[in-house]
Description:
Helices cover about 35% and strands about 20% of the residues. By secondary structure, the protein is an alpha/beta fold. The strands form two sheets. Strands 3-2-1-4-5-9-6 form a seven-stranded mixed beta sheet. A two-stranded antiparallel ribbon has the order 7-8. α6 (about 145-150) links the parallel β4 (about 125-135) and β5 (about 155-165). α2 packs parallel to α3. The longest helix has 15 residues, at about 20-30.
Amino acid sequence: MTPTLVQRHLPHAASVPRADLCARARDWAEIQERMLVPLYEAVYERLEVGSGTRLLGLGCGSGLALLMAASRGAVVTGVESGEPERLALARERLLPEAWSGRRGPRTRLTDGSDDSVVAAPGDKPYDIITAFEPIGCTADDSEGLSALLESAAPLAARGSAVVLVGWGPPERCTASSVLRVATKLADPLRTTVSWRPALRDDLEEVAQRAGLRPDGSGRVACPFGYADTESALKGLLSTGLFDAAVGATDPTQVDKEVTEALQPYVRRDGTVWMPNVFRYLIARTV
Length: 286
């Protein structure tokens, strides 16, 4: 298929030091990624993911959503083009046999540059495509997503489900108050990577630009729960949403202000609890 499934990512105002990328990916996998488990479960239940399902996960991160689909019996392929460190962790989770030179037939992972890997295994096309990375949190965070979905759609059968995810309304997402810190600190660089409220039709607009037909949606509560403030800080910074703020100020300043913004959500036992709602859209290939 042309072009290859390499997602276009907006440049951060300042790149994270190379030595920190592996640690940040580990923080994502161990702390933050699990916050969306209720969303993955709701989508898989609604679409009846199970034995015989052929699923393509775009922006698969460190592979938790794929692991959950595979545990239901699905044959999964994951694409992660923007975070090679996360992809390496996904391989550790899903392809333990790869270290001995043997790769299992039910799971494949790629950075999207090799069409022969992305194409559905065997003769059957994919019947579900997921793009679980939420949009509607920062300005232009859907940039390139429509083109990516348009490129992926031919790999699926006609009428197949394509799942998009977005943040819910800010009044139901307590994390939005913390994400505003990133915008405030990054303003001196006038970056486009800044927080904005989620809009009602964000997902529908992306689907329509990709030539997909919207076919239902849902909302899922996904609270962000952390053992303590330090874990919350690591988890939130692992998303990459604060990179521009780090470039505009320094890591110490960002740590300080994010920690302060977290205080209203610290409970008496020291844990951090931040209720949030995410919305998903099921669209169909035509």
